[in-house]
Amino acid sequence: MGGRGDRVDRPTRGKDPAGGAADPAAVELQLDGLVGPTHHYGGLAYGNLASMDHQGAPSDPRAAALEGIGKMERVAGLGVPQAVLPPHERPDVPTLRRLGFTGTDEQVLARCLRDAPDLLAAVSSASSMWAANAATVSPSADTADGRVHITPANLVSHFHRSLEAAFTHRLLRRIFSDPDRFVVHPPLPPNPAMADEGAANHMRLAPGHGAPGIEVFVYGRRALRVEGREPTRFPARHSREASEALIRSHGLPAERVVLVRQDPKAVDAGVFHNDVAAVGNEDFLLVHSEAWADRAAARRLARRFEAAFGTPLHLEVVSEKRLPLSRAVATYLFNSQVLTLPEGGMAVVAPTECRRDAVAREILTELVERPGPIRAVHYVHVRQSMRNGGGPACLRLRVVLTPIERAAVHPGVMLTPERAVALRGWVNRHYRDRLVFQDLADPQLLRETRTALDELTRLLGLGSVYPFQTEPGP
Ligand code: SUG
Question: Among 29, 236, 31, 34, which residue's Cα sits nearest to residue 128?
């Protein structure tokens, strides 16, 4: 079927001098992962301090899902397009079958709880909610064929996350199904050499969303050759080779990509993804001074931006002295969303943890007061996600879209005010407000989850997508 995937639909818009096609009407869609009914604290993400700290704590899936919907409503209320990415079904019973468990689904879960409890935690992970890791997205203004390129992340660094790739691929193909507008690539080969953590390690700087931009790929290590020293405490998750593969397959011009390495010391301090120490939006970049191994990289990026686009990059570097990395990790200041407002300027959506920290709060207040694009800071409470190391920015995938592309996105996932109300009602009907580890093998929870997800696919008009809907039983 090479034909469709290879089809090139040259955009009819004018070419911008910097390369791709510019469309001033382009906007950035925030595609947030909806928290699933089995949200729990598995302690699964080695190197993610919050996940490690909360292992085994009782969770509140209902509060988690409502917090996420609340954040989406806040963002939509700012006039920023917002959409919903459905949760993956967990526990992942088909994976347990591949790993040798047999019997009915209920028996599979009971046997897994008895014989391999760590595995039950892993196949039940809440992690699909952090949509920043779902994929890497290159807007059409940047790509050689003028289409939006999307590559689901293989997430091979952690077993529980690697289970997301296939279903994410299926979902994204359904949501971005128009081959004239979107190319949804398969995930990169699932091997540590190609370890890909998605947009958590990708930033895009541009004079405007619709203009060609500089795509910044941040990696943790080089896999096929030694490059400097590795972190000693925690693993560097993302390989340079994965980023290079994405640059090639998305058709990004060499003069508008930048590869930057995370500082191994930052990884050891708990910066498991770049979006824990840096955030960019259009012509604004907020970065911690010790985020990247090359301390001159941020300034060089600013010079490159100016040379390419003839306008300055608003670069804000937060020093280690002012906010140590440990505090950046605890507050998740850099995991704020920076959003372009329809009326002009930008807003920051920061976790409430930043309001409680005097320095983080002061930095955010200064951003608003100083000359620059930031107009306002909005604090959101996403505590259930933060306990697993996921802040506001982790919960969303950014997809820059021109009006024509936006019209081609599956409409059922868009968060209208009515759909937000429907989703809240759906959560309140189906989600528990307390979950402990043993519950993951509860046959009643399995039934509740499937009933909920079945209803969700109707609510979002997605048709049958979940394995329990599409695949014959045992
Ligand atoms: O991969 N936590 C996720 C958090 C991802 C945050 N995303 C971004 N930074 N973009 C992770 O470390 C913990 C799951 C658990 O322990 O149950 C987890 O996978």
Answer: 34
Reply yes or no on whether the pLDDT at 247 is more than 70. Answer: yes
Q: CB of 35 closer than 6 A to ligand 1? A: no
pLDDT in tens, 148-199: 999 999 999 999 999 999 999 999 999 999 999 999 999 999 999 999 999 9
Compute the distance from residue 167 Cα to the ligand 1 centre, in Å.
17
- For ligand 1, the distance from its centroid to the CA atom of residue 127, given in whole angstroms, is 6
CA 232 to centroid of ligand 1, rounded, Å: 20
Q: What spacing in Å lies between the alpha carbon of 46 and ligand 1's midpoint?
A: 9
Residue nearest to atom 5 of ligand 1 (CA): 390
Share of the chain above pLDDT 70, in %: 95
Residue whose CA is at the smallest distance from ligand 1 atom 7: 394
Q: Which atom of ligand 1 is nearest to the CA of 200?
A: 10
- Measured from the Cα of 388, ligand 1's closest atom is 13
Nearest CA to ligand 1 atom 10: 394
If one counts every other C-beta atom within 10 angstroms of the C-beta of residue 345, the result is 15
100: pLDDT strictly greater than 80: yes
pLDDT confidence tier of residue 332, bands split at 50, 70 and 90: very high
For residue 215, report the phi and psi dihedrals to the nearest 5 degrees.
-95, 125
CA–CA gap between residue 460 and residue 219 (Å, rounded): 35
The residue with tokens 């012509």 is: 283
Give pLDDT tens digits for 56-94. 999 999 999 999 999 999 999 999 999 999 999 999 999
Beta strands in 308-406 (DSSP E): 314-318, 337-340, 346-351, 374-380, 396-401
Helix segments in 87-239, DSSP class H: 93-98, 105-115, 117-123, 159-162, 165-175
> Which of the following is catalytic: 28, 67, 197, 405?
197
| DSSP one-letter string for 414-464 | B--HHHHHHHHHHHHHH--S-B-GGGGG-HHHHHHHHHHHHHHHHHTT--S
Question: Is residue 307 packed enough to be buried (19+ CB in 10 Å), middle (13-18) or exposed (0-12)?
Answer: exposed
User: Closest residue (by CA) to atom 14 of ligand 1?
Assistant: 44
273 is catalytic: yes
| Domains located in the chain, CATH noted | 19-90+125-269+382-470 (3.75.10.20)
pLDDT higher than 70, residue 461: yes
Total Cβ atoms within 10 A of residue 104: 12
> What does residue 121 show for φ and ψ, rounded to 5 degrees?
-60, -45
Distance from the alpha carbon of residue 47 to the mean position of ligand 1, in angstroms: 10
Q: Which of 273, 288, 314, 430 is catalytic?
A: 273
pTM of the model: 0.95
